[in-house]
Design a protein that fits this description.
mainly alpha, 2 domains, 6 helices
């Protein structure tokens, strides 16, 4: 029973996307920040538990990035619609993920199994995505100086860094999979 706990936590994180998005949409920024913080903590906990309990599974390997991507996509879309985030940044972030997803589907169709090991630049991209979203959300919470500092860090610094990492990690995935496809077709 405990072996399934990491997967249950990942699934709960997926469920948290909906109330977090609803709170954000309705301007309940402090409550959305609390739920996003819970989701972030659960992301660390489920990975730690899976490794600690030696219960890493294919389901967990799929649920974890899905939970991350759903939360990030929902927040980017809502922040963009609300005018808190520039459209160009949301297009880079979401476009990168769509290109990676489409590439994975095409690769799977043409070559079979695909190994989706995140690269260092991809991990950095995800970390900056979460940091930028947290800073932006914190800036909207009206916590005085803390919110002011968070807003100054989010835009322009995190936004520019996120754009560069998004483009760089997208190119990295395309080149990596292209190289794998070339090796498989020759070998």
């Amino acid at each position: 029973m405990l072996a399934h706990l990491p997967n249950a936590i990942s699934f709960a994180r997926i469920v948290l996307v909906f109330p977090t998005a609803w709170l954000l949409w309705n301007g309940s920024y402090v409550q959305a920040l609390i739920l996003m913080s819970i989701a972030g903590a659960s992301d660390a906990i489920d990975g730690w538990l899976a490794r600690r309990m030696n219960s890493v599974s294919e389901l967990g390997a799929a649920l974890d990035p899905v939970a991350d991507k759903l939360l990030v996509a929902a927040l980017f879309i809502i922040f963009t619609i609300q005018g808190h985030m520039p459209l160009w940044l949301a297009l880079i972030v979401l476009g990168r993920d769509l290109i990676i997803f489409a590439g994975a589907v095409v690769y799977r169709i043409l070559f079979g199994d695909i190994v989706l090991n995140p690269t260092v630049i991809s991990k950095a991209n995800t970390a900056v995505q979460i940091a930028a979203l947290l800073l932006l959300l914190l800036s909207l919470c009206q916590f005085g100086v803390i919110s002011d500092i968070a807003g100054e860090l989010a835009e322009p610094y995190c936004f520019v860094l996120l754009a560069l990492l998004g483009i760089g990690s997208g190119i990295d995935y395309v080149l990596t999979w292209g190289w794998q496809a070339l090796r498989r077709s020759r070998g």
